[in-house]
Design a protein that fits this description.
Blueprint lengths: L1 H12 L4 E3 L18 E4 L4 E5 L4 E10 L26 H4 L5 E4 L10 H6 L6 E4 L1 H4 L2 H16 L1 E8 L6 E3 L4 E3 L2 E9 L5 E9 L11 E2 L1 H8 L10 H5 L61
Parallel strand pairs: 1-2
Antiparallel strand pairs: 2-3, 3-4, 4-7, 5-6, 7-10, 8-9, 10-11, 11-12
Amino acid sequence: MRFKISFLILFIFTSTQIVGQNLREVPAEIFPSFEKDYLIIRHKNYTIAYSEKHEQAAFVIYKLTKKELYKHEERSNHFIEDPDINTSSANDDDYYQSGYDRGHLAPAADMSFSKTAMEESFFYSNMSPQKPSFNRGIWKRMEEQVRDWAYLKDSLIVITGPVLKDGLEKIGPNKVSVPEYYFKIVLSKTEDGEYEALGLLVENKKSSAPLSQFFVTIDSIEKVTSINFFAGIPIQESFESSYDASYWEIEDIDYVEVTEDEDNDEEEEHKTAHQCEGKTKKGTRCKRNAVENSKYCWQHQ
């Protein structure tokens, strides 16, 4: 194992610049490998592989634990340029009147356990142009489901990114690419010490489809991104070529999608038999599923 990890580090970083120090760094064998010229930025609470060509991260990676879900730092909404990118990252001018949301890759809600983490989540290097109905709809649902899984599994490794390629639409003075697809990958270790992983691949557009419709293998995401995920894990083939849907079981709620002009928290209330009875800050009913033998989800217990 020591040999495999050492080899991986050399493979990833031989021609790649590394900036910063991540206080919650994921294990080396889990870090993705790639051949493209990305800048590795280790923020204190998550790490990104930044693409200067597309002016956004090719992926972000971090660990999300059950314990961190109970801490609720107020959302800052203070978008700033990434201070660790010397060539400057995207900024307000790129998104102004573009018709696109500044979509988080590492969600602010995943970083609500500390003020520093929350502030880092609003770096423009962590943003990607997303259609409003996508960002406030299916993408938000995916983010919430990942937090639910982190609660149920105690901890997860989360990798999120856009599918970057030539020929994408550009916005703003910095020519920020507008991805057509986004992915999420979650990795969990079972009680038996085995790995379970799942990929989600979704188009940058409005959708009311069940989340399970977007389940894909890790191999599928590797093909469209040219990134090798979990290259340092010896048994990666066993969980990258397939996934266990029962391990990632969800009870899909028939969500009411928002329109281009609606706010995230102003969606119409929609009740199901297993829906949490908690209330959001705006007084609408929580859309998470209730924990077994309870009327409330993990956040409202």
